Amino acid sequence: MTRFLERLLRLRRNEWELLASALIGLGVFMMMQPFTLSLYSYSFVVTLIGTVLFVIVSHFPE
Question: What is the pLDDT of residue 41?
Fold first, then answer.
């Protein structure tokens, strides 16, 4: 876990893409769940942040 955090701080693509993909997946899960309306209401924002982060991170060096 500490290696993952160290590589996040070095602005490498692989770890940031993993984080952005996890945010996109979390946003989609929040959108599809039938349990609470508050999760649904924030799902678009989480998905949007993950997508924008993925686009930005795709320009980072390997």
Answer: 94
Query: What's the gap between Cα 32 and its chain centre?
Result: 17
Q: Say whether pLDDT at 11 is over 80.
A: no
Cα torsion 9, 11, 53, 16 to 10°: value is: -80
Give the pair of three-digit tokens for residue 43. Answer: 């799902």
Tokens of 47: 């998905």
Gap between the Cα atoms of 43 and 55, Å rounded: 18
C-alpha 36/C-alpha 55 separation (Å) is 29
Q: Token pair of 14, please?
A: 């692989």
